Each structure stands twice: as structure tokens, then as C-alpha cells.
Amino acid sequence: MTNGDPLSFARDIRPMFTDMDVAHMKIAGIDLSDRNEVMTHADAIYQTVSTGAMPPPSSGETPWTAQMCERFKRWQAADCPE
């Protein structure tokens, strides 16, 4: 995928959320496996992953890379395509 390729939630964004991410955030009332929920909370999601606040170090999960953050931001800027 290059920076000019169209993004999709199912192919490009959903796979960046682990099953643990989805389970933990469902408890908080956000379903990261649902495009509409991610779209609604995209600013907050981007803020937490781009600053390294999520996933928390204690989770043992790898933080998002700069490329993952950039992909999410491009998806958001493209009006969150399905």
C-alpha cells in the first residue's frame, strides 16, 4: 500500500486493533471492531495511540508505530471509508 491508495476500515484500520484492545474498550463503552464507533471516537483514539498512552505499557502489547498512526490519520481525513 502506498500513501495514495484508498484505505478501508475492514482491510486497513480494524486489523490494527488487537482482540485485547477490542475487549478492553468494549468495557469502556467503545467497540473498536465497529467502524461507526471508531469514526465517532477517531480524534480521541488517534490522540491516545499517537502519544503512546495506549496500549498501556503494562498490557504487554506493542504501541502503534508512526506508520500505523499515519494510516489511521489518512483514513480519518478521507472521511473514514468502510
Describe this structure in words.
This protein has 82 residues and is an all-alpha fold. It has one domain. The chain is 50% helix and 0% strand. The protein has helices spanning 9-13, 19-27, 35-40, 42-50, 66-77. Helix 4 (42-50) runs antiparallel to helix 5. The longest helix has 12 residues, at 66-77. It starts with 8 loop residues before the first helix and ends in a 5-residue tail after the last helix.
First-residue to last-residue Cα separation: 17 Å
Instruction: Give the helix/strand class.
Output: mainly alpha
Count of DSSP-assigned helices: 5
Radius of gyration: 12 Å
What is the string of SSEs from the N terminus onward? HHHHH
User: Main sheet, how many strands, which sense, barrel?
Assistant: none
The total beta strand count reads: 0
Indicate the low-confidence ranges by residue numbers: none
Basic shape: globular
Q: What's the pLDDT, averaged over the residues?
A: 92
Beta-strand share of residues:
under 5%
What proportion of the residues is helical, as a percent range?
40-55%
Number of domains: 1
